[in-house]
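Researcher: Please translate sequence to structure tokens.
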Amino acid sequence: MVNLYIDPGTGSMLFTILISAISAVVYVVRILIIKAKTMAGIKNQNERNAKKIPIVMFSDNKRYWSTFRPICEELDKRGQKAVYMTASPDDPALEAKFENIKCEFIGEGNKAFAKMNMLNAGIVLSTTPSLDVFQWKRSKTVDSYVHILHASGDVSLYRLYGLDYYDVLLLSGDFQEKQVRELERQRNLPAKEIRMIGIPYLDTMLEHAKNYEVKKSDVTTVLLSPSWGASSLLVKYGSSLIDQLIATGYDIIIRPHPQSFTADKETIDTLMAKYPESERLHWNRDNNNFDVLARSDIMISDYSGIMYDFAFIFNKPVIYTNAEFKKDPYDAWCIEGDTWMLSTIRKIGRELNGDNLSEVKTLIDSCIKESRETSKIQEARDETWCNIGKSASLTADYLIEKLAEIKAKEDASGESAKKQVEKKKPAVRKPAGLESKA
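Model: Translation complete:
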């Protein structure tokens, strides 16, 4: 029997070589696993990017098509692919014909939001507030959420936290930016990107008004067009005001805010039952409000933004009510002083209140007879409506610019991941202690 003897020094060297070899194998295997996972991650990310919708325009109601339509037309003209998603099955967009814009109905209510919550897109452009506040959540596979206004006036008149979790705001007046920055300061929010682009639907209305033939009535036409909620005109004055208007003998058009048919349903149902359609009284629910605005001689409203559309486009008089506007549910509650809309309407309109309600005919007649100072309307228009006639083009410019920025980041991220994999390739290492024994 042969006895094998290994001296301690040789044994130590062999043991070191063995341990080093095992460590090298383990190291190589770990690197290969990391590399495989990284490459799989890159592959999955590339697949997600390939399936990503460049631009999604989301509308929770068909009435906002007037805002999106000029933007869709501009993007389509430039050959930019995009998808318009609507929660209204009868949205006029679904009948539109575009080469590069796909319009689709994604379900109503929570079904629509469920779709949006899982969206894979570069940019989401929407008029819908309260992102990440209620049922509409930010999708992890959307790069940028962009909000565009659907009316002139205060951004602080959205419900609380309405714009807090958007990345970008497309606004139309400097006072709006000041409101946003004040809310960000109070809530310690990161500064959003803000672009002044204007108001697309007002640009379209202004162009339309230039060649529109107005269908005039033989008698004065009064448009009653309130907002919705506890402070709205119909909730506060209701029958008292309608009775006085009917007594004037004028044509009366009542156009409730679409939201009031849900939020103020009991009030609206009661009033519509009490005051059915007649020769001199009409209830208007047209999706497009242009015709009813064009043929009305005067508007009575509360704090609805439609007053400004009426004044800015048609230069016609407005009467506002002191409906005791309550700021509690709105972001305006967090900002001291009057809202821009309330302070401005006092300059361009006449007030109707509980004291002069019975004199509404006299007030209407005097407003129509006496031409209001157009300089006041022009001043208000300048404050809240920038880039007149250019908003759709500027919006398209921004969206395309933002897409390029997102693509550049994706490319940079992909290259960075590949370089990290290259850096982690195993180096050839000599077993520890081998050099000392050479």
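Researcher: Any highlights?
Model: The chain has two domains: 50-199+389-414, 214-384.
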